[in-house]
Amino acid sequence: MVVGALRALRPLMDASSFQEVGQVVRDFSRAFGAIHHALGIVERGPAQNTVHSLFEDEQGWCRAFRDSCRQLLRPQAPGVGGAIRTALHTVDDLPKGRVQEELRRLDAHSLLLLVAEMREPGDTAACFALLFERGRGAARLSWQRGLARLCHHAASLVLDACLRLEDPPQARTRLSAREAECLRWASVGKTSWETAHIIGVSERTVNFHLGNAFAKLNVNNKQAAVAQAILQGLL
Description:
The protein is an alpha+beta fold. The protein folds into 2 domains: 2-166, Beta-Lactamase (2-Layer Sandwich); 177-231, Winged helix-like DNA-binding domain superfamily/Winged helix DNA-binding domain (Arc Repressor Mutant, subunit A, Orthogonal Bundle), CATH 1.10.10. Helices cover 46% and strands 17% of the residues. It has 10 helices and 5 strands, in the order ααββαβαββαααααα. The protein has helices at 2-9, 18-30, 66-73, 98-105, 138-142, 145-166, 177-187, 192-199, 203-217, 222-231; strands at residues 36-43, 50-56, 84-90, 110-118, 124-132. A 5-stranded antiparallel beta sheet has the order 2-1-5-4-3, sandwiched between helices. A hairpin with a 6-residue loop joins β1 (36-43) and β2 (50-56). The chain is rod-shaped. It comes from Pigmentiphaga humi. This is Transcriptional activator protein LuxR.
């Protein structure tokens, strides 16, 4: 079970879309036999919490359990970080009310909630909700020492993947035709004076184009500019 869950997390490293991240969360949850799952990355704010990312197999299924999640999401004592908190609710143990009714409606026996603190204490948290049928071992799972840490590990990887996907791709450096030409001659050892005579412009113009190339490539000499241009496939 644990091996299968860890194996399900491997594709996160190469995930290129939120859909792929969602599939990983789905496979990870199924490894524990969950019939429904939800994973929310929550950013804490001074006034209210904001859901950074939410992955669930069926939209809105966990709304009835939000209050239970909020109880677990309450910040811990100052200086306490890395906390992992769990709560297990079963149809048999719950008093009559909305949560019990919702579990029955979903043909579920138990709900396992887990909140894992992430990053700086009180900054970000991940909330897992896993729903189980009767006899699928939710109670047994909740007591496994490694489950909370495994879910914490999964949530950390999911957050990293989400942040990576949200970072805008860096625009590729573009050199003008003259800038590339001047660098090309520099790459074969030509001086600015020699390059000027080869392409029919003044030495001052060559140095002007080289200066522009230095700025675009974030370097300060010809050798570094040539190396960077080659690395970026510009020469």
